[in-house]
Design goal:
Helix content: 55-70%
Shape: globular
Radius of gyration: 15 Å
Number of strands: 0
Strand content: under 5%
Length: 84
């Protein structure tokens, strides 16, 4: 049995995943919160943290962070629902 060594305690990863699940938009709240810049930025930042703790690719982590900054700076807006 191979033991995976990591610098992050397993509980830290679990907490990050839980935080991300709480911050992520769901089918139920999508229309209500999809344009909220703080909500979208928090969701993306928590995704970046999860990726970082799970040894994700640096480029993907940076993309998530930059996208969250775009929401906060007002450079990214909700494109609207294509079904409406």
């Amino acid at each position: 049995m191979k033991i995976e060594k990591t610098k992050w305690p397993i509980q830290t990863k679990e907490l990050a995943v839980l935080l991300h699940s709480k911050l992520s938009l769901t089918h139920k709240n999508w229309h209500h919160r999809k344009g909220d810049s703080e909500t979208r930025a928090a969701e993306l930042l928590s995704a970046a943290i999860v990726q970082l703790l799970q040894d994700g690719k640096d480029s993907e982590i940076i993309d998530l962070i930059e996208h969250s900054l775009g929401w906060l700076k007002g450079e990214v807006k909700d494109p609207g629902c294509p079904h409406n």
